[in-house]
């Protein structure tokens, strides 16, 4: 009786291992589809699939989701990747991209492209490849991709004050976010930020904006957006908009 029970258990165990082998190693559950989700601007689906380095011949349940995630997040344009497996043979990858919003000249040459949080995304040498606007008047101290830029020089009041530098970075990113949210950042060619209490902007059409300080910047940005739209409607592509004083902005045309 015991021999029959043992034989039966051995047979069941054998069947179990056969099933396990078929399930994991037969190739019947290898990846057949990779779905890329999320809104992409800088990267293509094929580029993300290439970054993921997924072995399409391997059983989907033997693939390490965290490893795939880490492979993708090495790309500087990727802020976050979420990898999930969908039965029986599909992998879904949801991508959150960093959006390039501006570029800053580097002292040793080239430009660093940053996102709205002042994180370094990419370093380029050719000005044709920069993301406008170019932020002038800022000295880059350290550049490490995917980290917040480190600034030095006259943009801060005291070179020995880390808290002052941090405050300048916070103010800078806040200002960039406000402009970006109004969808006219792409119309700006240059931003002069040497003094955060005396900012100037130059539009792609050539209009100089004397923005002043960053106090009440959200209101000023919204107002500036309306002014630039109005000037464009009227065919005004040059001149100066002065917003430095606690009064209505003044537009001066260069036409004679």
Q: Which properties best describe this structure?
A:
alpha+beta, 5 helices, six-stranded mixed beta sheet, 27% strand, 256 residues
Structural topology:
Blueprint: H1 2-25, E1 33-37, H2 45-52, H3 65-73, E2 78-86, E3 90-97, E4 100-105, E5 111-115, E6 120-124, E7 134-136, E8 139-142, E9 150-152, H4 162-181, E10 188-192, E11 199-203, E12 208-212, H5 217-233, E13 240-242, E14 250-252
Parallel strand pairs: 1-3, 7-10, 12-13
Antiparallel strand pairs: 2-3, 4-5, 5-6, 8-9, 10-11, 11-12, 13-14
Helix pairs in contact: 2-3
End-to-end Cα distance, whole Å, is 112 Å
Quaternary status: single chain
Number of DSSP strands?
A: 14
Structural class given helices, strands, pairing?
A: alpha+beta
The low-confidence parts are: 154-161
What Rg do the Cα atoms give? 28 Å
Proportion of residues in β-strands: 25-35%
| Main sheet characteristics | 6 strands, mixed
Q: Order of strands across the widest beta sheet? A: 7-10-11-12-13-14
Mean pLDDT: 83
The helix content is 25-40%
Count the helices. How many?
A: 5
Run of helices and strands: HEHHEEEEEEEEHEEEHEE
> What general form does the structure show?
elongated
3D architecture notes:
With 256 residues, the chain is of the alpha+beta class. 30% of the residues lie in helices and 27% in strands. It has five helices and 14 strands. The strands form four sheets. Strands 7-10-11-12-13-14 form a six-stranded mixed beta sheet, with no helix packed on it. A hairpin with a 4-residue loop joins strand 11 (199-203) and strand 12. The chain is elongated and about 105 Å long.
């Amino acid at each position: 009786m015991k021999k029959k029970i043992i034989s039966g258990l051995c047979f069941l165990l054998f069947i179990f291992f056969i099933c396990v082998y078929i399930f994991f190693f037969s190739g019947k559950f290898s990846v057949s589809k990779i779905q890329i989700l999320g809104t992409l601007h800088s990267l293509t689906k094929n580029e993300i699939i290439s970054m993921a380095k997924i072995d399409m011949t391997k059983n989907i349940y033997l693939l390490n989701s965290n490893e795939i995630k880490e492979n993708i997040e090495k790309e500087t344009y990727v802020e976050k990747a979420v990898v999930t497996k969908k039965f029986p043979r599909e992998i879904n990858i949801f991508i959150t991209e960093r959006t390039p919003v501006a570029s800053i000249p580097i002292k040793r040459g080239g430009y660093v492209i940053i996102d709205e949080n002042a994180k370094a995304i990419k370093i380029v040498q050719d000005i044709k490849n920069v993301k406008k606007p170019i932020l002038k008047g800022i000295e880059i101290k350290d550049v490490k991709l995917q980290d917040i830029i480190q600034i030095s020089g006259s943009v801060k009041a005291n070179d020995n004050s880390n808290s002052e530098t941090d405050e300048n970075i916070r103010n800078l990113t806040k200002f960039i976010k406000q402009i970006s949210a109004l969808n006219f950042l792409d119309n700006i060619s240059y931003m002069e930020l040497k003094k955060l209490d005396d900012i100037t902007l130059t539009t792609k059409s050539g209009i100089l904006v004397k923005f002043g300080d960053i106090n009440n910047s959200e209101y000023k940005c919204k107002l500036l957006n309306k002014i630039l739209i109005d000037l464009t409607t009227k065919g005004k592509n040059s001149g100066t908009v002065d917003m430095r004083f606690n009064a209505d902005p003044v537009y001066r045309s260069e036409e004679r």
